[in-house]
TrEMBL record:
It comes from the Archaea. The keyword NADP does not apply. PROSITE patterns: G_HFLX. Its cofactor is Mg(2+). It comes from Thermococcus indicus. Residues 186-362 form the Hflx-type G domain. This is GTPase HflX. Transmembrane segments: none annotated. Mg(2+) binds at S199, T219. Monomer. Associates with the 50S ribosomal subunit. It is found in: Cytoplasm. GO terms for molecular function: GTP binding; GTPase activity; metal ion binding; ribosome binding.
Length: 436
C-alpha cells in the first residue's frame, strides 16, 4: 500500500520525520512522498490552504491508498480533508493502532488494541452524526443517521464488554503476581521507548528467543521470564514500548499490560545509546512522561544504555552522565546508569546494578535465622540460597545464619521450625528486633 505523509511543524508540534517515516514503514506502507509545512494549526484542515492544494496535486499524481498526518487530527479536520482529497486520511495515532493490530497475537493484546481503536472511533462517529444533522454527509462509512447512531451504541456496548474481559485478565495476573512474591521472586519491568532493544535484552537475560526485530512495536504481548541473579529468584517482564506523546486512550487500553510496570519492584529503563544525544534525551523524557502518568517515578530505577557496541565508550560515558543529570534535576529515584550490549551479551554492569538494587528493596532485609536441629541446617541453607544471600554462618548446638532474604519468605522458613529476627542492617548482629 502507498502512503503520502504530511508533517506540520510548529512550536507546539515538534515532529520527528525519521520516526514518522519508520512508523509508516512498520505499518507496511510504501512512502511515496512526504509533505512538510512550518506553521501553526489551521482549524479546518490542520495545514494551510496553499499546502492543501499542493497535497491535492500529489494525491492526483501518485494515487496513494492513504494520506497520513504526523499531527493529531480532530474529527472535523479528518472529514474536511477527506472531502477535499477523496482518499482516506488518518493521523499518527490511527497509524500506531494499525501497527498494534498487526503485532497483537495474544487474546489480551487483541482486546487492548480493539478497545483503543473503539475509543478513537467514538469522536469520529459523533462528528458523523453531527454532519448528518447538518445535511453534510450520508453517514459514517456510508451509513445513514439511524445506522450511525446504532453503531455508536454498539461501540459503547463492545467497549464495556472488553473492559470487563480485561478486568478478568487483570485479576488472574494479580493472583499469579502475588504467588510469585510469596515464593520469593523479585519483579523487574523492562520499560522504554519502542525499538530500544528491550526484547533483545530479555532474551539475553533469560536465555530465550522471543521475537526481536529492528522495527517499532515488535512487542505488544506481555512476556515474563525468569533469570538468575546471584542465586536470587528474579522475574523480568517485557512491556509495550513507549512513544512520544502517547495519548491517554492508548495508555488506558493497555493499562493491564502497563500495570506490570506499576507492580514491579525495579524498573529497568532501556535507551538506545547509539543515537544522537538529542534523540536520547527526547525519548528519555517521553519515557519519564509515561512513567509519571503511571505514578511509578518513585520506584527504584536502573537505566541501561543499550547498543554500546555501535558507539564509543567515551560517548556512552558522556551520555550516561547527562542522563544522571536529568534524573537528579527531576528527583527521579535513579540507582545506576549502566552501559550494555544486549545483542552481544555484554551485561556485566547491569548484573551488578540489579544486585545492588535488589538489596535496597523494602521487601528485602537482613535477618538472623536460628536453627536448633542440625539435620535441618542443609534444608534451611538451600532455601536461603534460593531466595537471598547468606552473609555469615556460626555452627554450634544452635546454628546461627545471617542472611539477606525477602520478607515474604519468612513464613516458609518458620514452617521449618527455625527462629527469625531482623538485623539492624547498619550493624549486623546488634540492635536486633523480634521476628516471627
Amino acid at each position: 500500500m502507498k502512503a503520502i505523509g504530511v508533517i506540520r511543524k510548529s512550536r507546539r508540534d515538534r515532529v520527528n520525520r525519521e520516526e514518522f517515516e519508520e512508523l509508516l514503514r512498520s505499518a507496511g506502507y510504501e512512502v511515496v512522498a512526504i509533505l512538510e509545512q512550518n506553521r501553526e494549526e489551521h482549524p479546518k484542515y490542520n495545514i494551510g490552504k496553499g499546502k492543501l492544494e499542493e497535497l491535492r496535486e500529489l494525491v492526483r499524481e501518485l494515487e496513494p491508498d492513504k494520506v497520513v498526518f504526523a499531527n493529531k487530527l480532530s474529527p472535523s479536520q479528518a472529514y474536511n480533508l477527506w472531502k477535499e482529497l477523496r482518499v482516506e486520511v488518518i493521523d499518527r495515532w490511527q497509524l500506531v493502532l494499525e501497527i498494534f493490530e498487526k503485532r497483537a497475537h495474544s487474546k489480551e493484546a487483541k482486546l487492548q488494541v480493539e478497545l483503543a481503536s473503539l475509543q478513537y472511533e467514538v469522536p469520529l462517529v459523533r462528528e458523523a452524526i453531527r454532519r448528518i444533522k447538518l445535511g453534510d454527509r450520508a453517514g459514517f462509512k456510508g451509513m445513514g443517521e439511524y445506522q450511525t447512531q446504532q453503531y455508536l451504541k454498539h461501540i459503547r456496548y463492545r467497549m464495556g464488554k472488553i473492559r470487563r474481559e480485561l478486568e478478568k485478565v487483570k485479576a488472574d495476573r494479580e493472583v499469579k503476581r502475588k504467588r510469585r512474591e510469596e515464593v520469593g521472586f523479585i519483579l523487574i519491568a523492562l520499560a522504554g521507548y519502542t525499538n530500544a532493544g528491550k526484547s533483545t535484552l530479555l532474551n539475553a537475560l533469560a536465555g530465550e528467543e522471543i521475537e526481536a526485530r529492528n522495527q517499532m512495536f515488535t512487542t505488544l504481548d506481555t512476556t515474563t521470564r525468569r533469570f538468575k541473579l546471584s542465586g536470587k529468584r528474579v522475574l523480568v517482564t517485557d512491556t509495550v514500548g513507549f512513544i512520544d506523546g502517547l495519548p491517554p486512550f492508548i495508555v488506558e487500553a493497555f493499562h493491564s499490560t502497563l500495570e506490570e510496570i506499576v507492580k514491579a519492584d525495579i524498573i529497568l529503563l532501556v535507551l538506545d545509546a547509539s543515537e544522537p544525544w538529542g534523540e536520547i534525551r527526547r525519548k528519555f523524557m517521553a519515557s519519564l512522561g509515561v512513567l509519571r502518568e503511571l505514578k511509578t517515578l518513585d520506584r527504584p530505577m536502573v537505566v541501561a544504555l543499550n547498543k554500546m557496541d555501535l558507539t564509543g565508550r567515551e560517548d556512552v560515558r558522556d551520555k550516561a552522565e547527562r542522563v544522571r543529570e536529568i534524573a537528579e534535576e527531576r528527583g527521579i529515584n535513579l540507582l545506576r546508569v549502566v552501559s550494555i550490549s544486549a545483542k552481544l551479551g555484554e551485561l556485566e554492569e547491569l548484573y551488578g546494578a540489579l544486585e545492588d538494587a535488589v538489596l535496597t528493596l523494602p521487601k528485602y532485609g537482613a535477618f538472623e535465622i536460628r536453627v536448633g536441629e542440625p539435620e535441618k541446617v542443609p534444608q534451611v541453607m538451600a532455601l536461603i540460597n534460593a531466595i537471598g544471600e547468606v552473609l555469615n554462618v556460626e555452627y554450634g548446638e544452635e546454628t546461627r545464619i545471617e542472611a539477606y532474604i525477602q520478607t515474604g519468605m519468612i513464613k516458609e522458613l518458620t514452617r521449618l521450625g527455625v527462629g527469625i529476627r531482623r538485623l539492624n542492617q547498619s550493624h549486623k548482629g546488634e540492635g536486633l528486633e523480634d521476628g516471627q
